[in-house]
Amino acid sequence: MGMRRTAILLVICATSLVAPTLLCLAVLLTQVRSGVEFLVLIAAAEAWMAALWLANWWEFTGLSLRWVWFVALSAVVAGRWLAAPAPWRREFGASGIASTVVLALALAVLVPALRARRHPGRPLELRLPLQGGRFLVADGGDGAASFFVNYHYGFPGHRAKGVSASMRYATDIVEIGRFGCEAPWLLPPRNEDYRIWGRPVHAPCDGVVAQAVNDVVDNTAFGSHRPYGVGNHVVIRTGADVYVVLGHLRQGSVRVRPGEALRAGEVLGEVGNSGWTERPHIHLQAMCAPDGNYWRGDPVPMRFDGRFLVKNQALKAGAASGAGPPRGAAATPPRPAAASPGTPSPPHLDSSGSRPG
After folding, report:
1. Cα 43 to Cα 147: distance, rounded to the nearest angstrom
2. CATH code of the domain in which 230 resides
3. Tag placement on the chain: N or C end, fewer CB within 10 Å?
4. Distance from C-alpha of 281 to C-alpha of 304, rounded to nearest angstrom
């Protein structure tokens, strides 16, 4: 296991296992002198649990695990109160002050995460481009409100290239199984071990293909080589100067070409792991660009089947219509990679960084 994969694994274990355990132990073992101190302690623990509920990377350890921790913390709080209820005095000592500081830090994460669940302005109504499965929003929401639920807007690498503003509402989606995991075990290196790999991607709207790229090699999951950009992708122009990007598609799977008219539901390609991404998922964003330079256009909030997607939101899509090739098989015939005249290409920079696109 490489250093990068090891570092990511440690972060996942810290946020999904260690942090919730510490919250339960804090409630169980912290000495309080009054009921007020105990209430502040509970508020701090519950606020941090809520922040983890909204912002943690549960797709790695399982979305169901957050329910386990919620029940565990609730049981610890109830047990502690019933076993030795704190007297209702006005004393507020060191433990109360420490709990207040911890509560303030939790609210600094939680309040923006809650604000990110709403969007200003009129959204673009789209269909979910994935069918026949259970999916999870790995990053999504208003990135201007919270970096922790949608890193795209605030990530320094995107800001350096001047494209972060257009990514304010960018959304990453993975497929999950029964317990909410995207793969059978933590961070497998094979793309085929991720449930979403090879999943057909459907057009989310009517429109015209503005750009189609098909020849970017897929990365090894959580490997060191990650060329910057959205990899193999399709850009659809829909409505008045609004562009929709579907990125990180599988090499050789893109079935459309620039200038081709599309109807919502048509198969565009398959989910892959190309471009600046660490594991298979699909990247979606919408921009308004009257000058055609959509990578630096104004961000447009998206609603899929009437829902504004935010991080850790689970989605269940209906069965596919049967269009397109079987999962895991190369689309036939693949269309050549090309861009329509005057269409800007995605920006490039080195592969340094720590988050997928």
Report:
1. 23
2. 2.70.70.10
3. N
4. 17
pLDDT tens-place string over residues 97-142: 999 999 999 999 999 999 999 998 899 999 999 999 999 999 999 9
Which two tokens mark 242? 């609004």
- Domain extent, residue 154, equals 124-339
pLDDT level of residue 145 (50, 70, 90 thresholds): very high
Q: What's residue 272's pLDDT? A: 98
More confidently predicted of 350 and 85: 85
- 256: confidence class by pLDDT, cuts 50, 70, 90: very high
81, 128: one domain: no
Distance CA 321, CA 73 (A): 43
Cis peptide before 85, with omega less than 30 degrees from 0? no
190 Cβ contact list (under 8 Å, min separation 6):
220, 221
* Alpha-carbon distances of 169 from 122, 157, 175, rounded to whole Å: 13, 17, 20
Neighbours of 346 (CB within 10 A): 21
DSSP 18: I
